[in-house]
Amino acid sequence: MKRVIAIIIVLYTFFPLSAQQKLPPIEKLVYTGYYNWGIIWIRAGLVEFTMGKSEKYPEAVLLNAVGYSLPSWDWVFKLRDTLTSEFHPDTFLPYEFSRKAHEGNYHKTFDYSFDYTNQKAYGVINKIGKYIRQDTIELLPETYDMLSVAWMARGLDFDKLKPKDTVPIKILIDSKIYNLYIRYLGVEKIKVGKKKWDSYVFSPLLVEGDVFKGGENMKIWVSKDENRVPLMVEAKILVGSVKGILDLSESKFGD
Q1: What is the pLDDT of residues 71-99, one digit of tens each?
Q2: Is 137 helix (H, G, I), strand (E, B) or coil?
Q3: 38, 136, 147, 248: which one has the fewest Cβ atoms less than 10 Å from its Cβ?
């Protein structure tokens, strides 16, 4: 179940960072996560993304992502993850980022604040019941968090990319800045719900760990329209494969 939710979060994490095009706002997106059990895809969890105004920073927006296992899976592996980013809507640079992970018996929080005057990020990592650690990370130019990177990426001019082109990205994940990239694969038509979509397709470079194999073992489909909505993600993991699909009946698009 942890792997299913992680895949959907990555759907919003691995996008290029090179454009500033203004796009229609998206207020809410809901994804359903599936785990591959042999030849069967099993519905296992949901992730909800919501966008609003920041109350702490008047010039910022607030983006939340909440991932949770379905009740039918809680007895196997109960998961409740929450990610929050407050960032500037023009530069997409984050002011604060928080990740609260509650996965089975694993409970850990990550809270970061960004100091652009001194080019540092300050983190407080709390493994609940075990320790609290403070980190200081030297920021690199155009370093984004796991959520603000997604909104930056929505403005990319996809039509200027050629198949197999790569675009570099820098993301702060768990007190480390990763220099990664995505590879553009071209345009495909896919069916989500009852609708067929023209979509841009990408494959991100993944960090090898306890979820992913590493390498380019993931594909992401993004709508080829003015909204640039992430439609679906599918990936191979250490055991089997998972996918996340946009739930059109629950998601809300801005005008």
Answers
A1: 887 777 777 889 999 999 888 899 999 99
A2: strand
A3: 38
Which of 113, 60, 61, 105 is CA-nearest to residue 80?
105
Whether residue 27 contacts residue 253, with contact meaning beta carbons closer than 8 Å, is answered with yes
What's the CA gap between 204 and 181, in Å, rounded? Answer: 6
Q: What are phi and psi of 129, to 5 degrees?
A: 85, -5
How many CB atoms are closer than 10 A to CB 226? Answer: 9
Q: Which long-range contacts (CB under 8 A, 24 or more apart) does 186-190 make?
A: 187/224, 188/221, 190/221, 190/231, 190/232
Residue 50's nearest CA partner among 136, 151, 131, 130 is 151
Q: What is the pTM of this model?
A: 0.80
Name the phi and psi angles at 47, rounded to 5.
-130, 130
- Quickly state the pLDDT bin for 149 (edges 50, 70, 90): confident
Question: In this predicted structure, what is the pLDDT of residue 109?
Answer: 94
The Cα–Cα gap between 234 and 190 comes to 13
List Cβ neighbours of 235 (8 Å cut-off, separation of 6 or more). Answer: 7, 10, 206, 212, 217, 218, 219, 241, 242, 243
In tens, the pLDDT along 187-214 reads: 999 999 888 999 999 887 766 544 444 5
Tell me what the mean pLDDT of segment 55-68 comes to: 91
